[in-house]
Amino acid sequence: MAGIDLHTHLAPELGEAEIAELPGVSADHGRLAVDGSHGGPPRLNQPEALEAWLDERSLDAAAVSPPPPFFRQHLLVTEAERWVRALNDGIRRAVTGRPRLLPMAYLPLEHPKLALAELDHLLTQDGWAGFAASAGGRSTSLADPSLEPLWRRLSADGRPVMLHPGSSPDTRLGEFYLANLLGNPYETAVAVAQLLFGEVTTRHPGLRFLLVHCGGCVPAVLGRWQQGVDTNRPDVPALATPLRQAIRSFYIDCLAHDPDVVDLAVRVFGADRMVLGSDWPFPMGSDDPVTLLSHRDSGFVQQVGEENARTLLGTFT
User: Fold this and answer.
1) Helix axes 259-269, 218-230, angle to 10 degrees
2) Beta strands of the chain (E only): which ranges?
3) pTM, to two decimals
4) What is the mean pLDDT of each run of 10 residues along the chain (317 residues)?
5) C-alpha span between 140 and 156 (Å, rounded)
6) pLDDT in the model for residue 317
7) What is the Cα–Cα distance from 290 to 249, expressed in whole angstroms?
């Protein structure tokens, strides 16, 4: 079917001179490595493989962002400044001459002033479909006042901001692959809670956040959050907008691996807020995201794959 996958990943393409100037970065048989990790499967370094996959799935395009191992949120601000600029330059280079691959630039929310400076630099460039940032992980609380200038600028710009969970700092998740299986949906929920209880999206109605993994834990816990508001729980602020209404400003992908969760997310966020997301090329993704919607009617599948995606991407498509 025609459609756009809003959740795919590639490694940045960096030259030898760039790599030599970046501590912790190396090239290993054609694959970029950071902090001792390749960041994912070999296809992460093969944009032509992503194009071939789109052909096989009859999809029109894919939004591309770096995966979490390339966020490198542990870096101090000086090193992070050099890395983030190289990362974004490398993502642009990886998709150059490949118009079906729509690049999303990374913003380091663990360093709010740097994130704003990098956004100012990116806004002077053409070709960015949107932005990507870490949900949870080591990011500053998304309700922190230090991020207000960034939110104002992104709200005025209007392009989507994909929140992808960073590495959870919870050391209990070291066994059973729980850092991914539980940490990823949990970190997304932390980020959304900060945005909602901090009324960030209410103050900045132009913000358009895309949540991956079908919104993580959010569909299951939003009612509990509202109960906390309704019963005046300690430290829970009174909100001008009910959470069921405020959550409708977010978009989600369909990557739930469970049709019941897809249906719940549609009820919570709205049918007009779901888009395709495969998490290509990672094994925790889906090799065919359209099949995640196969239990629903064809009109809904078309809406998700085409209409909602083009609305989210705006004039870029």
Assistant:
1) 40
2) 4-9, 25-28, 31-34, 61-65, 101-107, 130-135, 161-165, 209-211, 251-253, 274-275
3) 0.96
4) 92 93 88 89 96 97 97 96 97 97 98 98 96 96 98 97 95 95 96 98 97 98 97 94 96 97 98 98 96 95 96 81
5) 21
6) 60
7) 23
Pairing of β 25-28 and β 101-107: unpaired
CA distance 18 to 31: 14
Q: Which of 141, 136, 127 is nearest to 89 (CA)?
A: 127
Report the relative pairing of strands 209-211 and 31-34 from DSSP bridges.
unpaired
**230 CB contacts (<8 Å, ≥6 apart)?**
none
Helix axes 218-230, 183-197, angle to 10 degrees: 40
In this predicted structure, what is the pLDDT of residue 97?
Answer: 96
In sequence order, what are the residues at sequence separation of 6 or more whose Cβ sits closer than 8 angstroms to the Cβ of residue 314?
Answer: 158, 159
The partner residues of 103 in beta bridges, in order of sequence, read 64
